[in-house]
Design brief:
Radius of gyration: 20 Å
Shape: globular
Number of strands: 2
Number of helices: 16
Distance between the termini: 23 Å
Helix content: 55-70%
Structural class: mainly alpha
Strand content: under 5%
Order of helices and strands: HHHHHHHHHHHHEHHHHE
Length: about 290
Amino acid sequence: KQWYQRRVRDEWPEELLQEGWKFLFGYYDLDSQHSERVVSERESEKNLQESLKLWQDLEGMEGSEGDRVRKLVYLINKDVHRTDREQPFYRDNEENSDILKDLLVTYSFLNPDVGYVQGMNELLSMFLITIEDKVAAYWAYSNYLTRNKIFYSSDGLMAKLNATAELVATHDPELYEKLVTLECGNMLFCQRWLLLGFKRESKNFSMAVKIFTMLNAVKPTHYLTLQGGKKCGILSLDMFLVVAVLSSFRKEILSFKDQTDVYQWTCKLKLADMAAIATAKQLYNRYAKQED
């Protein structure tokens, strides 16, 4: 546990991510002993197999539940076959695409309040490739979505975007006013950044995993207040990373003429290194404090 707490404050070495993610995303309890983890692994595998069978038995049946499963499979399959195709995990073993599909359907079938939205395929793929075990990857992904499912609803996402807008306006009023002038004050242009943890904006997959690790090592909380006493609702490190990225491209953004310029820029954006995440952590420590 002490090792884990030290690691979450710094960048995790790549060779530790496979096991580290099992702790970070709650597959293993931080206080568990090896013998307890072995028992938990067996139980987790049994529960996953039972969960898979629930929808697989319905897929060929008539009725509303069978229809729901078939619609999920069709929707998810369209995304699975274009997910991380450049990664050896899929390129060298086509069966892994089927595993990705099966796990996405399982979660979405068992959690109809969350369902499936585009981007979940990319998130689960990151868990599968990093952890390299479908059982651990599924339950770690499930735990991640349980923590963050509010942001996969339109109301939850808009609340997070509004809080991010307040954060940008507090940190750099001039930059935010420019975004408002460009009709981007609602921050919709950065919703993919927040939903996927800057995965597509990272220069490569390894960097995406490191950023996602750091974003989730700082636990989001509902009990943060901006310095000066102004409450800003839910704050999390990814919101501060938005501020850091916008700040690093400040001069370019201030030169934009219209909304099209903003969206064209976001489509091309690639983070060259981890400097932005370091800035985000500094901003987090500067602007936010946890209440008792």
